[in-house]
């Protein structure tokens, strides 16, 4: 069982990963199925260099893993329960007024 400090760190990593729309799109894509970087870059419409940076962040956060397959690498969620957590978050009702913004939207960075 995790202690409170570990629980907070896990939630903070998840929050930092979800703070970027591209990383959210990547997590949702990987929720659907494992994928190769070239396919992810094409599906999301970003350069492979930019994709690589976001995948590195998600790996550092512990949310995705790279699985070597010969000369290629496939990415997938680190734990199937993350897919369920993403589904729960997507379905949660958030009490935010339409004209309000999150104060941390200017911050960029990763885990």
From TrEMBL:
Keyword Protein transport: no
Keywords: Cadmium, DNA-binding, Metal-binding, Transcription, Transcription regulation
A molecular function (GO) term: cadmium ion sensor activity
SUPFAM superfamilies for the chain: Winged helix' DNA-binding domain
CDD domains noted in UniProt: HTH_ARSR
Superkingdom to which the source organism belongs: Bacteria
Domain annotation HTH arsR-type: ranges: 4-100
InterPro entries: ArsR-like_HTH, HTH_ArsR_DNA-bd_dom, HTH_Metal-responsive_Reg, WH-like_DNA-bd_sf, WH_DNA-bd_sf
Pfam families noted in UniProt: HTH_5
Biological-process GO terms, alphabetical: response to cadmium ion; response to lead ion
Annotated function: Metal-responsive transcriptional repressor for the cmt operon. Binding of cadmium or lead causes the repressor to dissociate from the DNA.
Subunit structure: Homodimer.
Protein name as catalogued: HTH-type transcriptional regulator CmtR
Organism: Streptomyces marianii
């Amino acid at each position: 069982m995790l202690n409170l400090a570990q629980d907070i760190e896990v939630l903070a990593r998840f929050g930092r990963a979800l703070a970027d729309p591209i990383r959210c799109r990547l997590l949702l894509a990987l929720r659907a199925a494992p994928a190769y970087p070239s396919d992810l870059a094409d599906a999301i419409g970003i350069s492979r260099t930019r994709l690589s940076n976001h995948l590195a962040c998600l790996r550092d956060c512990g949310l995705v893993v790279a699985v070597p397959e010969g000369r290629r690498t496939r990415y997938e969620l680190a734990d199937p329960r993350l897919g369920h957590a993403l589904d729960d978050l997507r379905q949660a009702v958030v009490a935010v007024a339409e004209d309000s913004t999150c104060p941390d939207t200017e911050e960029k960075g990763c885990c």
